Automatic annotation (TrEMBL):
This is MARVEL domain-containing protein. The lineage of its organism: Eukaryota, Fungi, Dikarya, Ascomycota, Pezizomycotina. Coiled coil: none annotated. Pfam families: MARVEL (PF01284). Residues 8-138 form the MARVEL domain. GO terms for cellular component: membrane. Keywords: Membrane, Transmembrane, Transmembrane helix. It comes from Cercospora berteroae. It is found in: Membrane. It is a multi-pass membrane protein. The chain crosses the membrane at residues 9-30, 50-70, 82-104, 124-144. InterPro entries: Marvel (IPR008253).
Length: 165
């Protein structure tokens, strides 16, 4: 039995992705607020803002990746290339976000809770990227396994996260 056929495992990974996105959102929102207040309203670093965007994007992507296979499995929305695209874009966002914030924090004399929060956001961003890399690899294996078949417009029912209603 392949790992992508285990719907409970896929749902668990999706929950972990949502949890990590929520943690990163909270940490980066704190860093952005602190930075804006410390520098008298000059704004927060773009690296922090990008991770905030990535966290929000992740929630939108998870809504699509969970809801479409579950409720719209027979519609045009449930296309294997659309699922692969959402997975890949989200993975790239997480990679770019945690690397950018890590580079921003490197060599910066920093202490206190705000720096600890920024470093924690980098760490959770890296773990989130690993989860998204894993699910992107699973989606890629599905696309490659089903290339040239007549069902090119259908997503794999084995990677649905719900048993149905």
């Amino acid at each position: 039995m392949a790992i992508y056929e285990n719907r409970t495992l896929i749902l668990g990974v999706r929950i972990a992705q949502a949890l990590f996105a929520l943690i990163v959102l909270g940490l980066t929102a704190y860093v952005a607020d602190w930075w804006r207040n410390w520098w008298n309203g000059y704004g927060s670093p773009s690296e922090v803002n990008f991770l905030i965007f990535t966290s929000v994007w992740t929630f939108l992507a998870l809504i699509y990746l969970i809801l479409v296979p579950w409720r719209f499995a027979n519609s045009i929305l449930h296309h294997k290339f659309a699922i692969l695209g959402v997975e890949a874009v989200t993975m790239i966002f997480w990679f770019a976000g945690f690397i950018a914030l890590s580079v921003f924090m490197t060599g910066r004399p920093c202490g206190g809770t705000v720096c600890g929060s920024a470093r924690a956001a980098c760490t959770f961003g890296a773990f989130s990227w690993l989860l998204w890399a894993a699910t992107t690899a699973l989606a890629t294996m599905h696309v490659l396994r089903n290339r040239g078949t007549a069902s090119t417009s259908k997503g794999d029912p084995n990677i649905q996260v719900s048993e149905g209603v």
